């Protein structure tokens, strides 16, 4: 395909759609929904990029991928150069190409979106990353000579993996301590197989290990080692253990059998293969009718998982579709798959039978008032509008907060009122040499924001380890 297209010819190309499974088929299996671009589709979509002199899309990317550069290589059919460019900027491109909310970040800044659809940056990122994973001859990143410095990373999720990848390229000896039995964090326990296959996460983690990152699983910092003990063994520490403590609604009946936090529900199914019980050891209640409370990506993942496990699945959300924080693609896919949406409704009680199993969900209708601190209109209850939703399993997906297991072992570590770690502009905590980033700092957020924290903080750690004052302290 020739890349010598005029601006008029580029502007005439329509955005290419991602091939995907038929909704009726995919709602009964855990295979990945999207198939990815073919080489021809990728090159055609890349031709739509007009290669702006001042690309705003890069400013919308938390990990500062040089988007126009890798897209230009795709348009030229030079996939190896595109992969080298992308992998140099992004530690987990096969992940972000699938789960990053590009529509509200890089793509919303795309000039093409001012008059039509923006360039499908996320789809192109996925194509390049997947192409790279299938190759065995790509040149490796050039790393700096060994620095002699050792860095511990707490948590093998998006922030920790990204930081580790950057730090090992800088020549540091990096060890990640992961509490669970498999690396990946939310990528493996939270995001379902049909959105992000575990094989892909394993391959991305394997690439980091090949680069020199060491990963030790089943290591609970706060129990296996305290933070002060870890700090004594390493020249710097990066805390990226996320915010995995579930938040519940505080309504009567939440302690009934059949009520799950989304964390537990998704972890059982995603990481412990509960959908294959009894071949897998971990069971999960399948339910005939499952009600999921919330409107974010986690709620969509839970509802779509329940559907695949054979249940009639409903989303209960106290605002409207327009206010949903979930990715537009995930909401669209849920609608296609037959998920029922009960909008402008809020639970007031989980109902149970005499055996204390879930028998229904009592809700009340809501109406929207003035915007709250998040910018979304505040929901208020409509008196006398209660109704009951028939269900036998309830999944609560209304958010998470910081787990105090690690921070409790180090009282000198400064926290905010929500229990999150406070950091300065460089990501350093109140303890010298101890840095933090991702959800444990900002609260529950997106994978790409955590990765952005990991990349920026890795740079700050590298500078910290290179300062004369650090060298003097180390020699003392």
Salient structural properties:
globular, 476 residues, alpha/beta, Fumarate Reductase Iron-sulfur Protein, Chain B, domain 2, single chain, 19 helices, five-stranded parallel β-sheet, FAD/NAD(P)-binding domain, 3 domains
Task: Walk me through what this model shows.
The protein is an alpha/beta fold and 476 residues long. It folds into three domains: 7-133, Fumarate Reductase Iron-sulfur Protein, Chain B, domain 2, CATH 1.10.1060; 150-244 and 402-475, FAD/NAD(P)-binding domain (3-Layer(bba) Sandwich); 248-398, FAD/NAD(P)-binding domain (3-Layer(bba) Sandwich), CATH 3.50.50.60. Helix content is 34%, strand content 16%. It contains 19 helices and 16 strands. The protein has helices at 7-11, 23-26, 39-46, 56-59, 67-75, 79-89, 93-99, 121-133, 158-169, 186-189, 198-210, 227-233, 262-270, 297-308, 328-336, 404-407, 439-442, 447-466, 468-475, and strands at residues 150-154, 173-177, 214-216, 236-239, 245-246, 259-261, 289-293, 312-316, 340-342, 345-352, 358-371, 377-381, 387-389, 393-396, 400-401, 434-436. The chain has a five-stranded parallel sheet with strand order 3-2-1-4-16, sandwiched between helices. A hairpin with a 5-residue loop joins strand 11 (358-371) and strand 12 (377-381). Helix 13 (262-270) packs across helix 14. The chain is globular and about 65 Å long. The termini are far apart.
């Amino acid at each position: 395909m020739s890349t010598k297209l005029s601006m008029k010819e580029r502007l005439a190309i329509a955005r290419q759609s991602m091939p995907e499974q038929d909704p009726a088929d995919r709602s009964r299996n855990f295979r990945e929904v999207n198939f990815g671009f073919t080489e021809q589709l990728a090159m055609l979509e890349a031709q739509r990029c007009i290669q702006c002199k001042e690309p705003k899309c890069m400013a919308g990317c938390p990990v500062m991928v040089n988007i126009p550069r890798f897209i230009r290589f795709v348009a030229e059919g030079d996939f190896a150069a595109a992969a080298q460019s992308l992998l140099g900027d992004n530690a987990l491109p096969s992940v972000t190409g699938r789960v990053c909310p590009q529509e509200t970040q890089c793509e919303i800044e795309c000039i093409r979106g001012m008059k039509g659809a923006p360039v499908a940056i996320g789809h192109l990122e996925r194509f390049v990353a997947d192409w790279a994973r299938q190759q065995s001859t790509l040149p490796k990143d050039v790393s700096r000579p060994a620095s002699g410095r050792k860095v511990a990373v707490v948590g093998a999720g998006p922030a920790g993996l990204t930081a580790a990848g950057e730090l090992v390229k800088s020549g540091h000896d990096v060890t990640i301590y992961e509490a669970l039995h498999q690396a990946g964090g939310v990528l493996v326990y939270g995001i379902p197989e049909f959105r992000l296959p575990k094989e892909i996460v394993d391959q991305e983690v394997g690439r980091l290990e090949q680069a020199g990152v060491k990963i030790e699983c089943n290591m609970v910092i706060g129990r296996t080692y305290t933070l002060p003990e870890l700090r004594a063994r390493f020249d710097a520490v990066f805390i990226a253990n996320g915010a995995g403590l579930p938040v519940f609604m505080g309504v009567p009946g939440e302690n009934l059998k059949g009520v799950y936090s989304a964390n537990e529900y998704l972890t059982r199914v995603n990481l412990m293969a509960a959908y294959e019980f009894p071949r897998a050891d971990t069971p999960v209640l399948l339910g005939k009718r499952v009600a999921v409370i919330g409107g974010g990506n986690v709620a969509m993942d839970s509802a779509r998982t329940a559907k695949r496990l054979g249940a009639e699945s409903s989303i209960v959300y106290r605002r409207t579709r327009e206010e949903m924080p979930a990715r537009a693609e995930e909401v669209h896919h849920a609608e296609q798959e037959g998920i029922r949406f009960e909008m402008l409704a809020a639970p007031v009680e989980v109902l149970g039978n005499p055996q204390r199993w879930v028998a229904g969900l009592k809700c009340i209708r809501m109406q929207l008032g003035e915007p709250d601190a998040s910018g979304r209109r505040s929901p208020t209850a409509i008196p006398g509008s209660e109704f009951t939703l028939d269900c036998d399993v309830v999944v609560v997906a209304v958010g998470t907060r910081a787990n105090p297991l690690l921070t409790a072992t180090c009282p000198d570590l400064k926290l905010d009122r929500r229990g999150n770690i406070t950091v300065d502009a460089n990501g350093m905590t109140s303890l010298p040499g101890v840095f933090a980033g991702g959800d444990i700092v900002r609260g529950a957020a997106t994978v790409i924001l955590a990765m952005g924290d990991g990349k920026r903080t890795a740079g700050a750690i590298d500078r910290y380890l290179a300062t004369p004052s650090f060298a003097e302290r180390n020699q003392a």
